Amino acid sequence: PSVPRHTNRLINEKSPYLLQHAHNPVDWYPWGQEAFDKAKTENKVIFLSVGYSTCHWCHVMEEESFKSKEIGEIMNEHFVCIKVDREERPDVDKVYMTFVQATSGGGGWPMSVWLTPDLKPFAGGTYFPPEDGVHRVGFRTVLLRIAEQWKENKDALLESSQRILEALQHTSEIRVQGQESPPPAKEVMDTCFQQLSRSYDEDYGGFSKSPKFPTPVNLNFLFTYWALHQTTPEGARALQMALHTLKMMAHGGIRDHIGQGFHRYSTDQHWHVPHFEKMLYDQGQLAVMYSRAFQISGDEFFADVVRDILLYVSRDLSDQAGGFYSAEDADSYPTTTSGEKREGAFYVWAAEELRDLLPDPVKGATEGTTLGDVFMHHYGVEEAGNVDPMKDPHQELKGKNVLIAHGSPELTAARFGLEPVWLSALLQECQQRLSSARAQRPRPHLDTKMVAAWNGLMISGFAQAGAALAEQGYVSRAAQAAAFLKTHLFDPDSGRLLRSCYRGKDNSVEQSTVPIQGFLEDYVFVIQALFDLYEASLEQGWLEWALHLQHMQDKLFWDPKGFAYFSTEAGDPSLLLRLKDDQDGAEPTPNSITVINLLRAACYSGHMDWVEKAGKILAAFSERLQKIPITLPEMVRATAVFHHTLKQVIVCGDPQGEDTKEMLHCVRSVFSPNKVLMVADGDSTGFLYHQLPFLASLERKDGKATAYICSNFTCSLPVTSVQELRGMLSP
């Protein structure tokens, strides 16, 4: 490779996103005191650019503007330029995204914001083209205008930035409003169900026309709504909505039919043409949703999708030390000799290419049928490509096919006169062959940053899948990742989590010079993961660590005045706002997950003040939950669980005994949104017996494994029959 002409301070960072910009002609600084001091000393405006390494439009803006020598000179002369990886610093991203959304009505990445030297925003947007167009002002023009305004009207800009900040502080505050009780579950659940039902796409599943996102939070809500309304028409509809959506996604182009895993979202109504990046947080949550679909329906189709997701993550997003990487990019070079990357290049196929790779005649099929004919028919391949030009504005997918299974295997088999079992083997053979062919293409960029929160979501994916599918290997992989977190993203001296670590040279695991401390979401998703891992593995050490982290979360983030948890700690002077997220989006908001974490923590520890805290969170969000519950489906679900009280399912027995294993399998195979599982193994010196002395009074009946269903530590009569236990588990 040629020697880069420019190198800036980002060369010393660990984030893959910041390193991508280390050779721009822009004099980038990372977020920190050095940049802030320079802005104050030289009395310059700060230009803040926020993005992430697998963001398509971030790449575009870099190619067009940040690699331009001329634009770089304008930026360096008039501004102090700061680059932030939003996945490393969600706190910085959130503060300024709140500003951009409030002032422009939209948001997204790359985010471009101009700040006063004391970090107050006064202008902002997202992607800017380099030059003026018919409908948009170009980046160069914006830079020059802002530089001119700062010179001529500095006082007005400072005044306006102060007013904006005060308005943001006022509008973004979430606190308890006099009324101190959680909202009623039934009304909130019913309103949320009706709002989702209205936005549901009857034909293709999902909750909008386009673009269409997987939104696991909606599916999770629907499963819980069904569980609590199983005998009603509304309950049946909720289940049908969730299962149909999951089926359509699994058949669609949003799923990678050759290399497994799911892409970020679909650009169309049919789940066909995706935005091709793959995010760890989607794989983790979808593994849980498909596991739940399997628990409820017993349909092996859903179990196969779970296995697919976990195969992809194990193979392509796993560090050898046990952690999980963040994401794979959407863009890649079409061939090893290509000069420019294209979105989806790694994933799409020309019809001719498929014919060449799959020329074999198919035994037993109608005369002249080849493997290519069968595969191309099943996956909707067309000679001229199957991508609607309207969904391909840059013509990157022209003549190419995104695989989508339109018909059932039975229909494809009938079309070619094949047995369905034989068809399945043929399609598998095709997939293996195409997988080998695809491995010769240049791979998309892999973001090898390992984020505590997303590792937590993925641990839950492996642990819950391991429990629901009775696959011990998945539970072991979850435990390996949890051990990785404890080694690399936890500081035993302070008892605190760290946000991220990185794959270094020779596959070592590296930490930045000044490690970034964990945020609320890191604690919340890791605690949830540890509870899930305990239920799947029965290793009490994970419970002990979860309860320790819950105490630490209370100390660092709880708002004693307005209730609920702040997203960030107090005491960072560079953060102008201390916010509470108020929307369940691609990931659930941490306060939503925390409600159930606190209820579980109380069940495992006997600390009832955690139940009280859970109620206070719901009280703080009460107004939003009652008016627009569809923005917080995970918290609505938590409201229902709060009002229904968790069932402690306690199995007394030897964890290695067959009778105990049979009972545990029964408990794990049933989806019940308000159950907590624990095993009383008779070891009175263990952590659980120490936390919950009443366990010592529970005994095995007739020497057999025995289950008790307890609520607020009051227990049912003992049960030794698996059938009887199954009947008692429904909510």
UniProtKB/TrEMBL annotation:
Spermatogenesis-associated protein 20-like TRX domain boundaries: 7-169
InterPro entries (alphabetical): 6-hairpin_glycosidase_sf, 6hp_glycosidase-like_sf, Ssp411, Ssp411-like_TRX, Thioredoxin-like_sf
One Pfam family of this chain: Thioredox_DsbH
GO terms classed as biological process: carbohydrate metabolic process
Gene3D superfamilies, alphabetized: 1.50.10.10, Glutaredoxin (3.40.30.10)
Protein name: SPT20 protein
Organism: Panurus biarmicus (Bearded tit)
Highest classification ranks of the organism: Eukaryota, Metazoa, Chordata, Craniata, Vertebrata
